[in-house]
Design goal:
transmembrane, alpha/beta, membrane, TLC domain-containing protein, TLC-dom, 10% strand, transmembrane helix
Length: 563
């Protein structure tokens, strides 16, 4: 006898009270899901994803880049979720559609015959729906540990799967299965539309993705914000009291009532909170006239979404990206020799002052000449002064006379505004290969101490250095090494990388901004002489606060440190 024939011989209408022994079949469902997913991933989802995303004729060996593999992996995950939610929705509807409580909620608690909650039997087919859902989320726990890629949301996802299994099991044992099957169906319907929209997004079908998102929004409103509170919760809060035999179930009845109603109302609060996120996406969708973003991010939504940040990441599949920023550019008034600027400038040394102590140090140099500025279109520069000040957001370019090479003075770029991560490489390219082609580069950066969790000795706490290959091999006087095994990010790292590509000798010296006096002494006595540069510092500028020490005017753009 085949499996199909055997299933047809089972009396799915048979009724019995739920019992712990029913869960003996749960391991079969737990093994069923990874088996099905393995074959679908290997023989269906992989080929379907390549076909829809990259077009006909793309073989597995042709998917070479990490981005392509990531898109295929996300498509397969969404396809698997879609298959489960669709099958679970079909099973829930097929089991509940012909039941009287599908259209009349009072039958959650009464019938058939003289049965009254919690003394109600369950049909075998309803037990099957519960085992199907419990098996999926139990499998999801093990898949999260042994199968799927470990993500930053591992703890939240694990908590979600464990909580879902517990709720399914408890609602089964405490005979809330009729309500539970409807709640499962309400959630699965919305998730089907969401996963279809994500698959459409990955494959470039913008129209289908937009339509699926609209259906997702409508289903969320109708099922989770209207039907769930005004029918389901009303029944679990009021109708059940009318039918409960308070004398027979004076102890267990109230416990079941308050525990599960508390959980169901908590779920409603989450529905409303998540709706706020959906509403924001919907507004952006309308403002963009239905066009969806190409920004595809982490997908972690499951049957009942994890907390807001992860649900937000899923909704970000449907948001518009920020408009591209205008390109930064350099604006010169004269060249270092005072004549009309001729491009590119070829300074013997380019100093990039990013750290708080270095800004303070070069601020007190009186003989520097302002020759230009770096323009970031997104940064307002109205009211900036010629010289650096605490209120400035300028990125000015100065000329410093160099007796060693008078025909090729030293250039100083003083950054007093934060440079976002998305702008670092563009700015670095401007300073090293377009209008400025330096022979050597000195980058003075600082790091946020709070981002560093280790302990360093005093010499390490003062500064450490990274350099390009050309600088390390140069026969000229070089800056001594400072002990460290650390790496920084931000503009300093981007400049060092640009110099490495251009084969320019460059050194990145990183300091702790709050060690002001020590760092200033280090820069003057060790770092600048290594670059054949001596500074004559003016006095009378003591009122200029070292930015890294002042809490009210703190330097907000120190780089991050990794060790």
């Amino acid at each position: 006898m085949g499996l199909a024939e055997y299933l047809r011989t089972i009396d799915w209408e048979e009724e019995a009270y739920p019992a712990y022994e029913d869960f003996a079949i749960l391991p079969l469902f737990v093994l069923y899901f990874p088996t099905v997913r393995f074959f679908l991933d290997r023989f269906v989802f992989e080929k379907l994803g390549r076909r829809l995303i990259f077009g006909k004729g793309i073989q597995k060996r042709d998917v070479k880049t990490d981005e392509q593999r990531k898109k295929i992996r996300k498509f397969k995950e969404s396809a698997w979720k879609c298959i489960y939610f669709l099958s679970a929705e079909f099973l829930a509807l097929s089991v509940t559609y012909e039941e009287p409580w599908f259209t009349n909620t009072k039958y959650f608690w009464v019938g058939p015959g003289d049965q009254v909650w919690p003394d109600q039997k369950m049909k075998l087919k309803l037990k099957g729906v519960y085992m199907y859902a419990a098996g999926f989320y139990t499998y999801s726990i093990f898949a999260l540990i042994f199968w799927e890629t470990r993500r930053s949301d591992f703890g939240v996802s694990m908590s979600h799967h464990v909580a879902t299994v517990i709720l399914i099991v408890l609602s089964y044992i405490f005979r809330f299965a009729r309500v539970g099957s409807v709640v499962l169906a309400l959630h699965d319907a919305s998730d089907v539309f969401l996963e279809v929209g994500k698959m459409s997004k990955y494959s470039g079908a913008e129209g289908t993705a937009s339509f699926a998102f609209i259906l997702f929004v409508l289903s969320w409103i109708i099922l989770r914000l209207i039907y769930y509170p005004f029918w389901v919760l009303w029944s679990t809060s009021y109708e059940v009291i009318l039918t409960l035999d308070k004398e027979k179930h004076s102890i267990d009845g109230p416990i079941y009532y308050y525990v599960f109603n508390t959980l169901l109302f908590c779920l409603l609060v989450l529905h409303i909170f998540w709706w706020v996120l959906i509403y924001r996406m919907l507004v952006k969708q309308i403002q963009a006239r239905g066009q969806l973003s190409e920004d595809v991010r982490s997908d972690v939504l499951t049957e009942i979404p994890p907390p807001s940040r992860f649900f937000q990441e899923d909704l970000n599949n449907f948001t518009l990206p920020s408009p591209p920023l205008p390109s930064p550019f350099l604006l010169f008034s004269q060249n270092p020799n005072g004549a009309a600027a001729e491009m590119p400038l070829r300074p013997s040394l380019l100093i990039v002052a990013l750290s708080s102590p270095s800004l303070h140090l070069f601020h007190n140099v009186s003989y520097k000449t302002l020759i230009g500025t770096l323009i970031l279109p997104e940064t307002p520069f109205s009211g900036n002064s010629i010289d650096p000040s605490l209120k400035d957001k300028s990125c000015n370019i100065y000329s410093l006379p160099n007796p060693q090479t008078p025909e090729s003075p030293t250039l100083l770029v003083s950054f007093q505004c934060p440079i976002g991560a998305e702008r670092c490489h563009a700015v670095a390219k401007l300073l090293t290969s377009h209008q400025i082609v330096p022979q050597r580069v000195l980058i003075l950066d600082s790091v946020q101490t709070l981002n560093f969790r280790g302990r360093l000795s005093k010499d390490e706490a003062a500064a450490f250095k990274l350099e390009t290959t050309a600088e390390r091999k140069a026969p000229s006087l070089k800056l001594e090494y400072f002990p460290s095994a650390s790496v920084v990010d931000g503009l300093g790292a981007a400049l060092l990388a640009a110099c490495e590509i251009q084969n320019i000798g460059a050194a990145l010296c990183v300091t702790w901004p709050q060690l002001g006096a020590l760092v200033l002494s280090l820069i003057r006595s060790h770092i600048l002489p290594a670059f054949d540069l001596e500074l004559s510092i003016d006095s009378g500028c003591e009122d200029y606060v070292i930015l890294g020490q002042d809490k009210d005017h703190g330097h907000p753009f120190d780089s991050d440190l990794y060790t």
